[in-house]
Amino acid sequence: MLRVTTRYCRTILVVAALLGLAPSGHSLAADEVSIDTMEQRIQPCMACHAEKGIDLQAGFVPSLHGKPAGYLFNQLMNYRDGRRDHRAMEYMVRNLSPDYLREIAEYFAGLEGEYPEPAAEPSSAAMRDRADALITRGDPERDVPACIACHGARLTGAEPNTPSLLALPSHYVAAQMTSWRSGQRQAAEPDCMHTIAERLSSEDIYALARALAAQDVPSNREPESEPLGDLPMDCGSVPMPES
Fold first, then answer.
1. Which of 113, 106, 118, 117 is nearest to 46 (CA)?
2. CA distance linking residue 101 with residue 19, whole number of Å
3. Is the pTM above the cut of 0.85?
4. Which residue among 51, 86, 169, 221 sits deepest, i.e. has the most Cβ atoms within 10 Å of its Cβ?
5. For the segment 78-107, what is each residue's pLDDT rounded down to a tens digit?
6. What is the mean pLDDT of residues 141-148?
7. What is the C-alpha separation between 225 and 203, in angstroms, rounded?
8. Are 167 and 217 in contact (CB under 8 A)?
9. Alpha-carbon distance 16 to 94, whole Å?
10. In 3D, which of 133, 131, 112 has the Cα closest to residue 170?
11. d(Cα 1, Cα 21) in Å, to the nearest integer?
12. What is the CA radius of gyration of the chain?
């Protein structure tokens, strides 16, 4: 049984205050915590999402630095509204307004982190060839578009809503693709990633996850400056709110 101590309660309240989640009617003394900047407010996020220490070979936590603000905002809204299932993330954002979530997204989009070394390539030549085909050419027989068709030739994503596929842990990629395939992870309709994941085998997903984690991050890490033309599928990513 968890022993609830005064120190434990204060820790929870400090974390809540950092994200603007302090319970209604509860105020913190000035000597307990002083929150003035977004950098201070997102420290609970950095406990898991800091660039350093991310394990691309077997980790589960993605980096957020430099991803398009529209994508990050969409994911925060998906957690808040139940389209993505993760208890800790749901708790962190469930009481935050869309405007505040947009501020958080824009803050992370403006950060540039230190990316870890790539993971080891898949050991099987057949697995490497299959992953390379899916990344660069897709699978026309299954109507699966190439990853680069939406995520850019450098796989660094595109503004405003398409994320980079680089420097992501292999286990995280595999888990997300599997969640899309099963419908556990959802996005606004038409949910193109669910459609794509349904057409991939478990072996395809594993090969992609391993190969993407082994990709080098290019010197130009910026996402494409504008949406890519002639996208192979319609995606219903929720647009960012107007300023």
1. 113
2. 10
3. no
4. 169
5. 999 999 999 999 999 999 999 999 999 999
6. 97
7. 33
8. yes
9. 12
10. 131
11. 25
12. 19
Which token pair is 2?
């968890």
The end-to-end CA distance of the chain, in Å, is: 47
Give the integer Cα–Cα distance in Å for 152 and 150.
6
Give which of 192, 185, 236, 193 is closest to 79, Cα–Cα.
185
Contact yes or no for 221/161 (Cβ under 8 A)? no
Tell me, what amino acid is at 186?
A: Q
In sequence order, what DSSP letters do the residues of 36-89 get, joined into one string?
Answer: -SHHHHTHHHHHHH-STT--TTT------TT--HHHHHHHHHHHHHTSS--HHH
Here the tokens at position 187 are: 């996005």
pLDDT digits (tens, 9 = 90+) for 114-124: 788 899 999 89
Measured distance CA(45)–CA(145) in Å, rounded: 33
Q: Is residue 190 reached through a cis peptide bond, with omega within 30 degrees of 0 on the bond before it? A: yes
